[in-house]
Amino acid sequence: MHTTNESKAAGFGALLWLALATFSMGIDGYVLTGLLPQIAGDLDVSEAAAGQLTAVFAFTAAISGPVLSALTGGWERKGVIAGSLAVFVFGNLVVALAPTYFWAMSGRVLSAVGGALLSAVVSAYVLAKSAPERRGRALSFVLGGFLAATALGVPVGLVIGQQSWRIPIYLVTVVGVIALIGILLNVPRLHLPALSLRQTLKPLGRPELLAAILVATGIMCASYLCFTYATLIFGPRVDGEMAIVAAMFGYGIVSLSGNIISGRATDRFSPVRVITLIIATLIVIALLGATGLMLPGLGGAIAAFCWFFACALFNGGSGVALQSRLSDLAPDSMSLVLALNGSGMQLGAALGGMLGGALLSAGLPADGLLPASAVVLAATMGVHLLVERIAPRRVAVPAGV
To answer: What domains sit in the chain, N to C, each tagged with a CATH number?
Structure first.
């Protein structure tokens, strides 16, 4: 897949700068949700309108990522990474300087376009530039930047954002600029075989690949079905906001650990086996967690924390295995399928929040969201096993047959 003079694997230095880029995206993706009152007051809009800055970002990223990945599939990869990061940074600068809601929304759309393409291309670059036996570890290191941001960058951003919601956005911009300079100076160039748009889009005609993307959607749906309403689960069992903040901070740390473990496991075993283990374990965790929440007093609180952190470990480890699996299914269209995977995850997060809200509105207690997530995961396991049943026969067929 590499040209002769670009076949050398990317070193630690290159991966570090790419991880810093994903770190900036991680802060950007979550910090605004905790600052809605400040944003609403400063821009003179309702909190609901301020929340649309996050929703529009997710929607724009889900749509633009696959389209831009397909259109730029034949371009040199380092240039695409640098260009998309520059757009992401500029969009955040527009948000930070926005005098009105219109300009803030415009900046969010722009940053979403850059961020969506950046996320897909970075993952595809790492997979293409890593030795086969070390792909999982390399991908987990770079994706770890995003998870590290949720664990460290977001809490810091929320604290400094109490004075002004614009400060965390400036932080994202500064980190992004530093990452951009590092990438330009240290990340090797990479040309992949030029494919026509028709060839790039060819994998979309394969049912097993589309079904594999639905696996990511299902895992994220089950996760956000509970994660979105975690405070309702913890609220009756812990006193004070700091306990919930500690739970969220711990979730980020444990997710990062799961990401590291998954990277090594994916290298040692196949991505398929890792995904199977993750889904099966998450089902067991949901059922055991639902049982543990029935305990009174301290027992129920301990069960809530154990369930939450166990979910973090395996949800955090799912990204590496899922992306490695997709790269195996469509090695010549990695940017496109990884962008579609990102869209599938965004869709899953949205569906999870909507489904959880609908169940709560229908009268289901918050604790009932755990067994509901087990049902979603069981359906996801069925899709995953179906992919494995049909994929080998199709993938094994030589090109052109």
So the answer is: 4-194 (1.20.1250.20), 199-395 (1.20.1250.20)
